[in-house]
């Protein structure tokens, strides 16, 4: 009886399908869409670090590219991404453009003994698959505008994306925090400085060098977790703590400072122009452009000053570096507005920190530039 019932039901279903083919097709399409949607939902519910790991697994070799003149956050993020790639069987070559001049950046590279390569031309990229870290649009080398990155990991505002993977979190204070989170996502274990990586029973590990670098990258980009840091940055720093080498961290944080850097800081303070709680200082011509942001860091600590911009010139390029602890001033947008209309000028950044460059021969005049900066800080442009 039960078999006959099944046969009768099947016959009715077959007859309905013949009489209503369009409904059957629609129902089939709905089932397929539902299945695909469910699979997509499951895919994107996976932790971001797991998705990035799987993207790396599909590559044999990646070039992990930092922004020009990389700082500790960029170098730390690159080292972390490179280590994750190597643990899934993907060769990683860490590359950068420009130079590493700032004493803190040089100490970071030397103390951690980083194997990173400088490039000047697109042909020098080590692999076809490029991962951008701490920036989201290739720049700083010939042919950069023709590079289509396979992945982007960044915390800066911008429109750049990766062909396969994009993770841009502008609410994070450092790219190093994002990379540290990837290791948490895949169950990575920090390796204490006195323990060999092979002694840790885990599929993914984060050696002491990488832990130390990532923590310093977070500290450097958030002014020791006091400026622009989110709860995620604090969580990332805590997750790295078991693997940090305190001696290496101290050596990076306290490098020797050049005489010129001290001189530029003194010129910035002595020559500052103040309007209300805003200060702009022209430090003139110098040989080390990295002294300019250091001077801005010094100037913002002055009592009564809530936003500062330091201007200096090196080899035909005018550099701007700004700091803000004033809720009225978004420093990145202020500098962008200040140089708007100047040919070949570029500027931007975050609310608390920004920078920019413009050709010296396109500068209207130093006095006009400073006036434009003050107007922008005051919201008049």
What can you see in these coordinates?
- Residues 346-357 have a biased composition (Gly residues).
- The chain crosses the membrane at residues 23-44.
- Keywords: Hydrolase, Membrane, Transmembrane, Transmembrane helix.
- Residues 341-365 are annotated as: Disordered.
- It holds the Pfam family DHH.
- With 381 residues, the chain is α/β, with parallel strands linked by helices.
- It has 3 domains: 2-45; 51-253, inorganic pyrophosphatase (n-terminal core) (Alpha-Beta Complex); 259-377, Roll (Diaminopimelate Epimerase, Chain A, domain 1).
- It contains 13 helices and 14 strands.
- A 6-stranded parallel beta sheet has the order 3-2-1-4-5-6, with helices on one face. A 6-stranded mixed beta sheet has the order 9-10-11-12-14-13, sandwiched between helices. It has a two-stranded parallel ribbon with strand order 7-8.
- Strand 10, helix 11 and strand 11 form a beta-alpha-beta unit.
- Helix 6 (175-185) packs antiparallel against helix 7, helix 7 runs antiparallel to helix 8 (231-240) and helix 10 (259-270) packs across helix 11.
- The longest helix has 25 residues, at 21-45.
- It is globular and about 95 Å long.
- The termini are far apart.
- Mean pLDDT is 90; it is low at 36-43.
Q: Count of DSSP E strands?
A: 14
Largest sheet: 6 strands, parallel
Strand order of the largest sheet: 3-2-1-4-5-6
Mean pLDDT: 90
Give start-end ranges of low-pLDDT stretches: 36-43
CATH topology of the largest domain: inorganic pyrophosphatase (n-terminal core)
Q: What's the CATH architecture name of the largest domain?
A: Alpha-Beta Complex
* SSE arrangement, N to C: HHHEHEHEEEEHEEHHHHEEHEEHEEH
Helix content: 40-55%
Overall, the morphology is globular
CATH superfamily of the largest domain: inorganic pyrophosphatase (n-terminal core)
Gyration radius (Cα, Å) is 26 Å
Proportion of β residues?
15-25%
- Structural class, from helix and strand content? alpha/beta
Region (Disordered): 341-365
Transmembrane segments: 23-44
GO molecular function, one term: nucleic acid binding
Domain DHHA1: 276-365
């Amino acid at each position: 009886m039960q078999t006959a019932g099944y046969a009768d039901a099947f016959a009715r279903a077959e007859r309905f399908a013949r009489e209503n083919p369009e409904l059957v097709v629609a129902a089939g399409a709905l089932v397929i869409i539902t299945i695909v949607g469910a699979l997509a939902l499951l895919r994107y519910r996976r932790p971001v670090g797991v998705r990035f790991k799987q993207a790396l697994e599909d590559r044999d070799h990646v070039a992990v590219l930092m922004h020009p003149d990389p700082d500790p956050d960029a170098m730390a993020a690159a080292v972390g991404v490179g280590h994750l790639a190597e643990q899934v069987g993907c060769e990683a070559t860490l590359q950068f453009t420009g130079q590493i001049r700032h004493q803190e950046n040089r100490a970071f590279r030397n103390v951690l003994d980083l194997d990173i390569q400088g490039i000047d031309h697109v042909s020098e990229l080590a692999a076809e698959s490029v991962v951008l870290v701490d920036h989201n649009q290739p720049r700083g080398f010939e042919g950069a505008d023709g590079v289509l990155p396979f992945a982007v990991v960044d915390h800066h505002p911008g429109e750049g994306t990766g062909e396969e993977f994009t993770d841009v979190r502008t609410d994070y204070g450092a790219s190093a925090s994002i990379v540290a989170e990837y290791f948490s996502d895949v169950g990575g274990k920090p390796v204490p400085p006195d323990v060999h990586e092979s002694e840790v029973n885990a599929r993914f590990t984060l050696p002491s060098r990488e832990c130390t670098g990532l923590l310093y990258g977070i500290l450097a980009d958030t002014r020791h977790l006091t400026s622009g840091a989110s709860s995620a940055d604090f969580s990332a720093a805590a997750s790295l703590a078991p693997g940090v080498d305190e001696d290496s961290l101290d050596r990076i944080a306290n490098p020797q400072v050049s005489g010129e850097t001290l001189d530029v800081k003194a010129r910035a303070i002595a020559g500052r122009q103040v309007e209300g709680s805003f200060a702009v200082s022209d430090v003139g011509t110098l040989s080390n452009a990295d002294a300019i942001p250091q001077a801005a860091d010094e100037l913002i600590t002055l009592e009564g000053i809530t936003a500062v911009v330091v201007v200096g010139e090196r080899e035909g390029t005018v550099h701007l570096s700004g700091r803000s602890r004033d809720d009225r001033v978004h420093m990145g947008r202020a500098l962008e507005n200040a140089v708007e209309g100047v040919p070949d000028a570029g500027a931007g950044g975050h609310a608390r920190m920004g920078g920019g460059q413009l050709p010296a021969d396109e500068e209207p005049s130093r006095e006009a530039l400073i006036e434009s900066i003050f107007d922008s800080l005051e919201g008049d442009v």
